[in-house]
Every structure is written in C-alpha cells, then in structure tokens.
Amino acid sequence: MWTGSESALVDLPAKSACTAISSSFVAGLDSLLYACGSETKSVRFRKGTDVVIAGSRPDSLYVNHDGWLYGYKILHNGGRQIVNFVLPGELFGLQSLTFTSSFYSIATVTPCTLSKVPVALIDRMTERNAKLTRALLHAAVGETAILGEHLINAGRRSAYGRVGHFLLELFVRLKRGGWTEDMSFVMPLTQELIGDALGLSPVHVNRTLRSLRDDKLIALHGRHVTLCDFAALCRLSDFEGSYLGDQTAPHDRAAPAAAAGDAQAIALRAAS
Amino acid sequence: MWTGSESALVDLPAKSACTAISSSFVAGLDSLLYACGSETKSVRFRKGTDVVIAGSRPDSLYVNHDGWLYGYKILHNGGRQIVNFVLPGELFGLQSLTFTSSFYSIATVTPCTLSKVPVALIDRMTERNAKLTRALLHAAVGETAILGEHLINAGRRSAYGRVGHFLLELFVRLKRGGWTEDMSFVMPLTQELIGDALGLSPVHVNRTLRSLRDDKLIALHGRHVTLCDFAALCRLSDFEGSYLGDQTAPHDRAAPAAAAGDAQAIALRAAS
DNA sequence: CGCGGCATTGAGGCATATCAATGGTCGTGG
DNA sequence: CCACGACCATTGATATGCCTCAATGCCGCG
User: Fold this and answer.
1) 20 to 30 Å CA-CA from B101: which of A1, A170, B206, B227?
2) For A80, nearest residue in chain B (alpha carbons)
C-alpha cells in the first residue's frame, strides 16, 4: 500500500483554469464567459457541499474550472443514484434552460472554482446567436451520449465490466483536458461514490477493484489510478470511446482539414 | 385473459399524423417539415426492422408519426440494452447532429411512418435560425432528463419499482399525444423488450407484472395496460413526472400568460 | 393442421447485497 | 508529540433478488 502524504491529492494539482476550460468539449462556452464577464460570477465551493438542490428553481448554468462534482438523486427508500460526474473543464446545469425545477442535486467532491452564468443571459444570447445555441446543442447531445453509456453500464454489465468501463471513461474524459499523466490519473472519489454511480454496494466496489488489481489490469496507489492494460480493459467492458470524443459537427466534417482534435478550435469559432 | 382479435392492436389505432406530430414536445419540428418539404422524405417501415444501424454514419434526423421504435446496443457478451423508446410524435436521431457515427441501432416495434430530414439541411438551417436551434436544444435536454431517469431506474430500483416506473413513464408520454384512454393504453412490447430496457430477464419481467397484477396496481388484457392505482404506483417507484412535461423555456416563464400546455404553440412560433 | 413466437411457471444457482468487525490514515485538539 | 475521533478501505459470513435452464401452454398465422 502506498503511504505517502495525500494532502496534495485532495486539492487537485494546480492548473491554469484557462487551459481547463478551453479543453472542454463545450469549449465555445469560454467565449461566452469573456463576452459577458460582468454578468458572470466566479464562485468557489468547498468540498462536500451542494451547489444545486434538487427541486429548487435553477437560475444558472455553470462552468467547472478545476474540481470534481456529481449530480445525484435520493430515492425515498434511502438509495442514492449518481447520474453523472462533472470533471474539470466541463459544464453543468443545461437543464435549467428547459425545465423550471432541478431534478438532481449537484454536490462537490473537491474544492471547485465555478463560473456562474445566469440563465436569463444565456436565454437572451441564444435568441440572436445561433452559433452559441449550436454549441449548447452539441453539449446537450454529448451529455445524452454519456448518459446512454451509463445506462448500458448499469443495465447490462457485470460489476467487473462496470468498474472497468467507469475507469476508462474517466481516463478519456480527463485526458482531453490534460489531467492525466501517462496511463494514470488522480481520482478523488470514495468507493461509496463509485458504487452510487454504478448501482453497486460500496463493499462490492471494493472487491471488484481488488479483482482488477489482482488481474494486473489496474494499479491503485492512494488516489492514483493507473490503467495497466488499456486494451484488455476495453475488451472486458465493451468500451469504445467514440461517444466521448470525436465531437465534430456535421458541417465541419465537410472540411477535411479539421481533425478530431480541432473540435476545441471549431467550437471557439462557433460561438464567436 | 382477453381473447379478442389483436390484429388492430399491432397496427396502432389510426390517428391523424398531424395531431401526433404537433403534440410532440419537440413540436417546433413540424414547422421545419413544412418549411422544407421538398427535402424531407416520408418513409414507411414494417415492424421489426432496423432504421438506423449502430456504427454507420448517420445522415438524417427522424420524426416518428405513429409507431413505436427503440434504440439499442448489443454487447459482445450477447446482452442487449435498450436505451430509449421512441413513441408516436417524438423525434430521434439528434446524435447525428454532433457525432460522425451512430452509437445505437434504432429498430421498429410496430409499422412506422417517419419523416426523414437530412442532417445537412438541419445544419444549414441552424446556422441562421436560432429559434429552430433552440427547439432542438430543448429536445436534446429533454432527452437527457429521460435518460437520467432510466439510469436511476436501472441503478437503484427494485424490479418491482422499475416496471412500475416504466409503465408510468409510458403512460405520461403517450398521454401528451392523446394516445391513452382513461387510465389505460396500448403497449405493443414483448416482455423481452421490457426486460432489455430495464436490465431484467424476460422471466423476471413476467413475474413482476404478475405481482403488480396480484396487488391490483395494474391490469393487463392482451396488449392493453390499465393503471388501477396511479398514486400507489407513483409511491412505490418514486415517480415524479415533471421530468417529462413542464417543458416551458426560461424566457417563456417570464410571460405568465403562457401555461404549461402552450409549450406546443411556443415551439411552433419558435421555429417559424 | 402444424409451426413459431410469446407468456407462464417451477427449480436451482449465482452475483451482488447486507451485516458486522477490523485496521489504516488524517485531522484536530490537548 | 501524542491521543482521540471521523472517515474510509478491507475482509468475512450470510442472505436474497434476480438469472438461467427447462418445460408447458396459448395464440396467431401460413
């Protein structure tokens, strides 16, 4: 077992917020933030606090610069289901554009710096600015792709497959923003959180992680996760990452010069 | 057991396609269909056929007029997960706007009349028409809400709760389009399809339906489902239908004259 | 009339949940 | 610097919800 200090790991490694935002697959959003800086507030939250409460009237869309959050719902039998994690550089709260109340609570896992954009502002801008609206549309569609994959996870995969798939997805999403190092990353989640995301009990998450470790597929050192055999993990969990990346809009496909990695630049242009 | 002829049930009751479409919560789309009728093709599919194949390059967005379809994915262990059902008056294929390949196959349950709108056309229109783009955005966000609820279903509810929740959701979604009668509706699904949607085996779906029937919560007569105790069903399955309806956009909330039921008219105006 | 698809029911097995106990690590305060 | 408490990971033992296999019967259709 790894025994070094972990204090530096709870607060994620420092990175330029700018890098984190622009690497988001909804990168168009940072143009938005610049365009209306006066109405957009930067806010900080400590770890373990609720940013949005289920049932309340939502009034903002958020860009998460550097922390981890999760959206969840409590059932009346006491169970909790985590619907999605919000990683550094990703946004959340799109539902506030369409619905009059929040379905999920959103809580922080780590300390977070968030940009808070009033819905009213977004609403005003989308009336005129079709390109911004398109960027938001792509973000929403990207979210459906991720949720669909989570549904497949919970519905039809074994615990082994679920945990494997989960780690692979985190890795790919973090890699986009440069939050990985080689084949490893920092995961500030408890096994209970993982269980609530995958529909497993915390002790079974523990046993499953142990199996993955015994099978030399992953390595754990404190909060550091290393994927030792990426290909084998993909195989056992039916992971096929295209639902995460490859965010090239149809009209961009026509321009062969635009490589997949340019999605960021494209979205930037789109929201100008 | 109900023994009447079922031939009329497999082909769902005839209704004006126009009614069906405009009752969709993405009602803005029918304006689109009118606006560019020449490029939009109306197509028919027999029951049990694939409309979209997973992995292929998607080139169209579809409006489903009168049938039932489902989106699914096959895992390499042979399992199938159904991600969503497409009911009469709903649209599908939004992912083609953002991704270069389809993640799911889409198949028909019943005969279907579909309007097929080329992505290129949508793409051209969304460049200029912010209101259409907003309608699509709202459709996409609505889809995330439904998928999130399905995830909660598969992850944290018992079989009993899942089936109950599933029937309630179908009822509410069908009711929007006028496809219900009192507390009952026609459900052209096999128990195997239900199982693949909920992450259950077909035999367990059968036993669960029997329990619900024994408990006088539902009644089944052939393909007719009747909800005998709506309130009790909601309680046991944590059902709270606001994630389905209530699709009032933020800027519409400001106008108190716009009741929830006017969402249709609003979207119509929006895409004009 | 026979065949195929689907619902139904029983029996037994397995994956995962639940309950319970232990120990490690960290933060806090004396 | 040490003692304490909170939180989390870990492991064992037991319980159970759901799955799998298997057989039967119903119904519609060719």
Assistant:
1) A170
2) B156
